[in-house]
Fold these 2 entries.
Entry 1:
Amino acid sequence: MVALPDTRPDSDTTRDQRMWLERVPAQYWVLGILLLIIPSFASDFVMFQIMGWTYILGLIALSLMFLGGYGGMVSLAQMTFAGFAGYLVAIFGDSAISGISQGWPWFVTIPLALLLTMLFATLVGWLAVRTEGIYTIMITLAIAAAFFYFTRQNYDIFNGFQGFNSVLPPQLFGVDWRGPEAFYYLTLFWAVAGYAGVLYVGRAPFGLALQGVRDNPRRMAALGYNVTAHRVAAYAFAGLIAGVGGILLTWQSAQISPGTVGIQPAIDILVIAVIGGLRHPIGAFIGAFIYVLLKTFAVDVLVALGLSGERFQLLIGLGFLIIVFWSPDGLLGLWDKLRESRRRDPLTGRRGE
Amino acid sequence: MRQFARHHPIWTGLLAIVVAVLLWAIFAVWPAALEDAIGRKKLFLNALFNGITLGGLYFLVASGFTLIFGLMRNVNLAHGSLYLLGGYVGYFAADITGFWLLAFPIAFLVVAFFGVMLQILVFRRIEGQDLRQTLVTLGISIVVADLMLWGFGGDFYNISPPSWLSGPMTTFFVTAVRSSGEPVYMTYPLVRIVIFIASVVVGVAMWLALNKTRIGMMIRAGVDDRDMLSATGARIQIVFVGVFAFGAGLAGIAGVVGGTFQSIAPGEDIRFLLASLVVVIVGGMGSIPGAALGALLIGLAEQFGSVYFPTYAVVLTFLIMVVVLAFRPQGLLGKA
């Protein structure tokens, strides 16, 4: 393509000359300010359990969204990466299991845990990209199951069925990072960082090439891109995001055990990402928010309806089923459909089809 | 076979050695040094038999899965739920009627009916969309698992075989020799052997039906090129429904077998879904002989693993899968 000289003095060129701060859309300002002032009126429970958990699950689902939405690879191993990072923090850092935990300082533990998680994700990715579509789902599901059984059986490193407890965040700058407010801002920071990171990488050359690989791997290969390398690198990046989420998750519950990395949690992450929508990073957080609300309050609602609170899984499953059956793009897809149907045609004044 | 030997002389030689060692280990009386090194022969033979019979069970579950995938490219992650449903139906059928054998046709019919419903109501609406099929069947399996937990509770159900099948049977394998020179023969539960033979019969019948009959020809043509087959006038939707019903029914039968072998409980659906996934990945998607080979390998690996290195027995099966994937992504007998 030949780049035509842009002679139109239209909004596109003028908009680019504005400060980057001014280019942030209004919705972001509203949402950002709302999220920042939540601690001023919300209870500790809402901050720590609901919002904190939403950000953490959103981060892990975000890593799946990155792989699935930009890379076209749906991996069920994201919870495994998250749990791996959580385990490593417990093993290298401090926990109640002093026989295994090394007690290294946080500035060694956390980078090392994230690095090893990326390495692990790269290995899994290298294995998974040898397959396509459905096979990827099945292989990552099998890897997640293998990791779950391994941690449950291994007592030397992973402390078996019990796992590790009292895994606490470091007391940095004299702040207790597990306090509700501090933890809220900590998780919010990482959620925003992950969100912005995914958006940025999605528009960077690597992300664009990855989307090209998703849409047509043969053409990208013919253009000289290394398809496998892009896919594996996507796994590594997603592993990093999931790792951050996993460390935060471990700190939030102050423990990590095989139950955290089981098959059910792995599927839950997929459910979260799909409910929200795989097309845009915000979908992961929307899905996580709905999931957390359901998980927290569904029992009360079910009991109020006269059903046993144990039927929570049924509610989640039905909601998931309805969404994937009628709107494959999740809630974001529903939102787009709604906007599409409300939009008036400027010439005829008619509503869209 | 001969072609394989000509193309891969080294692999053939290695395989022949392995088979020879296995045959010797099965039939010979073990010298004392060997028994000291890896345990008694009885242990080995038991692991071998358990592995083979477990492989038979895995084959029953996985063959339906691989058949459905091979023909329709439908990934049915609710296959484990069909297995569990078959187990429950079989339990109640055997309990109410009092005939163990009656549990098999009833479970087959009920689960096949569910399979047909699944094919007509779900898969036909989202044909050709792999990811959505996976997600929808995953959702179905979550819902069905919870409904079954609701209906049948969290208890373990055990289908007891009839009296003429229960009890051990003396085989002609010598496990040891008494000091008096009298050989000790191995005993093994009769019901397991019968069920294994039945699954071999099912497998052979399936292979014959696929390769020697008209319907089998249609199915094979459908596997290779679905559109072309329907263009020649074959009623492909009927073939689809039939294969789906048969594959689901096999899962139901496997549920009865699993309930007799082991027990039926919530969570078994995921276990058998995973097992059939690993089996078909190892054996090759859509291939019946591949499913048989994969099931045998995984069953043996699980049993030998649990005898000789019990801690990591489950991990061993996944290790096999990883190795197969790394060197032969399409599976041992899969088409490239």
Note: The mean pLDDT of chain B is 82.
Entry 2:
Amino acid sequence: MEKRVTFNERWLPYLLVAPQMIITLVFFFWPSGQAIWQSVLIEDAFGGNSKFVWFENFIALFEDPAYFDSVRVTLVFSALVATLGLALSLLLAVMADRIVRGASFYKMILVWPYAVAPAVAGVLWGFLFNPSVGTVSWLLAGLGINFNYVSNGNQALALIIIAAVWNQVSYNFLFFLAGLQSIPKSLIEAAAIDGAGPGRRFWDIAFPLLSPTGFFLLVVNIIYAFFGTFGVVSSLTQGGPGQATNILVYKVYNDGFRGQDLGGSSAQSVILMLVVILLTVVQFRFIERRVHY
Amino acid sequence: MVENRPFLTWLSHAVVLLGVVIIAFPIWMTFVASTHDQATMLRAPVPIWPGTHLFENYKEVILNGYGGRAGSVPFATTLFNSMVMAVGIVVGKLLISIIAAFAIVYFRFPLRLTCFWAIFVTLMLPVEVRIVPTFGVVASLGMVNSYAGLIVPLIASATATFLFRQFFLSVPDELAEAARVDGAAPMRFFVDILLPMSRTSIAALFVIQFIYGWNQYLWPLLITNQESFYTVVMTVSRQATVVDTVPAWNLIMAQAMLAMLPPVLVVAFMQRQFVRGLVETEK
């Protein structure tokens, strides 16, 4: 889309885009370029010299079982965060959509978690499940379940999933609710007159009409689970115990800053960049299609 | 409502209420923990109703930080840093993106499309992905431990530019035409007509970007190593993860409450703008 009416100025437009372009070049293109460059270098142990090694960093990465562990954990984590997050928020949205009285109160509470930083969300859930004083772990102990996310890998993974889903539910909820409310009332009424019950109306009318929103949210949730959950992991488990919660985005940071393995970390960065670009392209292709609906 | 089904209405309330309780529970427990003394919070089961140490705890963290330990700074300083960072990011982003969008929409100039695509690709890569080299760049510019280092690298983002671009494209051409016929300079048109018209978009973006800025975690963690530049979110996370023989949960949780308060207030009081911003920035 283009404007028909424009202004004629020679230097002004450059002046106007300059601040954003400079910042983009310095803090986006330069570091991204460096990530790609460093991913084909190996720095020696004393940090002085670096040597061009083609794809050795990538090969080393693909031969490292720890990397595949991390990939596996990330996939399990993202799949569960996205499915649980979408299912729960859809349930809440469908129910909230039926409610007339008190709806705005419910909505106000349900959008809160969005405002809470993932790192703080991690702290809150870590407190609830704290092995010695946590309320929930105390309740679980009463049921005979020994919950200790500090030492049990599966429980640690479960906990970061819970915290991540909690943090993301508001976002999904708002989009589903907006989607439900934009379904024409006449459709629902016509179906009701034809004798379709609430369940039938949901599966045959609301659900298909929500599928574009659902697909959009799926991509957003996967991106969130891949990259947005760094704070949750960092506050709760730091990738542990062992490698049980070492998701890819945490591993990039851990290997680069703690392990000082710049080449390996950059190679991981480059792979993650490709993943984001792929996901973004999927998202945009889809949004373009949605416009023609 | 199409029909009256008392059972379904009842069920909806029950499900949503259960959801609300589960969603609110962590926040409630945080609040409760921040109102007791340290000893109470070390004995399981911890209370689920507020205690009497609310003012004491908050006064302690705001004035002295976390239990007067070595290197702890008053939480007031930390809150101030977060506020500077969040406001700086919001103002910076809005400012550079609204003028960039103005240039891209209302002018024809060589490299216009190049600029457009250069800004567009920044949508794709979150800071977390290119974190190591970005840190390297900022360090080589000498911006470690400074407000500029906290703010400037994060204002390079395309979302706001895109929202403004969308909005400008929807502004009727007649307005610009009239301004041109009347001999108004482009900047005059921008300030007197475009800017007032963009009010609602600015408000929506303000809410979203304020939350984004306030909740930054990884970036301040890397770019600051002096306590006087620490931000709220990273401080809370640090102290909760420090291996401590006797953690002062009451103080940690008082800080967590303070860390949540500003963004939650912004969302609660600007809910309309918040929802609008959320839906529009994701298009």
Note: Chain B touches chain A through 109 residues (CB under 8 Å).
